[in-house]
Amino acid sequence: MTQFIDSLKQSMSQMAAPLPEEPVGVGATWDTTINIDQGGMKLTQVAKNKLVSLAGSSLSLAVSLSQTAPKQKLSKNGITVDLDSYSGSGGGETTLDLMQPVPTKATVKLVSDMHMTSGGNPMGMGLDLTVTMTAE
Length: 136
Description:
elongated; seven-stranded antiparallel beta sheet; mainly beta
């Protein structure tokens, strides 16, 4: 249960795209790079953000995501595997009210591809995962 809650908290924080320091208008774009520890796997996520609309304190962003991870050892519950490759991509939309601490609405879809091998086992394992999250 703790792992599920931690994963949910991380997913929610990733939906809140940092805004640029300088003033921007509709159509502005900027990139945000963050390092993520997802259950022991270290990966880098680049979000390409675009300001779609702005009305009062409410704004909408379109976001496209890409994720990569270097080769690394992953250990969980006494089992260690080698991460051979990882890539993810996706995107979504976020609606923010600058007067609220969290997004008022966010939808993100992520497709990832992961290949691992087990220490003594020459078999590889692939994973294609599609996650769609909506918060309102």
